[in-house]
Amino acid sequence: MGLFDDLGRFLETRLDEFLKNNPQLELQALEEKLYEQEQETRRLLADLRLREKTVESEILTTAQDIQRWHVRIEKARSAGRLDLSEPAEAHEASLLREGNQKWGQMQLLKERIQQTEELQRKIQIRRQEVQAELKQVKAAQAAQAEKRWAVDGWNQSSFSSADKATDPLEQKFQQWETQEELNEMKRKMGR
Questions:
Q1: Residue 22 φ then ψ, to 5°
Q2: Is 43 exposed, middle or buried (0-12, 13-18, 19+ CB in 10 A)?
Q3: CA gyration radius for the chain?
Q4: Along the 191 residues of the chain, how does pLDDT read in single tens digits?
Q5: In angstroms, what CA-CA distances link 155 with 99, 149, 161, 170, 181?
Q6: What b/e string do you get for 109-145 counting C-beta neighbours within 10 Å, with b at 16 or more?
Q7: Alpha carbon distance 139, 130 (integer Å)
Q8: What is the largest CA-CA distance in the chain?
Q9: Pair 20, 134: CB distance under 8 Å
């Protein structure tokens, strides 16, 4: 496990370095992540609203049952049928508790919907900010490339001599090529 942990940390560090050196890629990754979160929030909202409608329908059905049993209770009391009115009152009380529970569920769903809508708004705002930053970075890179192109012209390579001196890959190749030439010279002298 230690080797895989080390490898995982190494890759994360390299990825972080790479993204810091390429801000447009970091912004694109962030924008994609925000897009996925926005889609996930949208799905969650649809699910919550569907559940809210289901609970509202159940509350309406329970309310109709309570009304029906209330009429029966009054009718049994008027007729002096305590054997029917007392169990009907217990049944009505049970329906009232059930209705209260469903009402509580609906209130929780409304709160979750409100919180999720707020989260969705925040994600959308953040995504718009990231898109604006990304646009600025791309515009700055395009302006820089255009400026470099104007300075370098058609007949020069894309790297100026100053760029070559600071390019780490260029430096490594120069060291390697110098070492190869030195080794070749040693081989020839040894003959």
A1: -130, 80
A2: exposed
A3: 36
A4: 577 788 778 778 877 777 677 788 888 888 999 999 999 999 999 999 999 999 999 999 999 999 999 999 999 999 999 999 999 999 999 999 999 999 999 999 999 999 999 999 999 999 999 999 989 888 888 888 777 777 766 555 555 555 666 777 887 888 888 788 877 777 777 75
A5: 82, 10, 14, 20, 29
A6: beeebeebeeebeebeeebeebbebbeebeeeeeeee
A7: 14
A8: 128
A9: no
Alpha helices (H) along 22-81: 23-78
Write down the pTM of the prediction: 0.63
Cα–Cα dist 68/75, whole Å: 11
Provide CB contacts within 8 A for 70, sequence distance 6+. Answer: 92
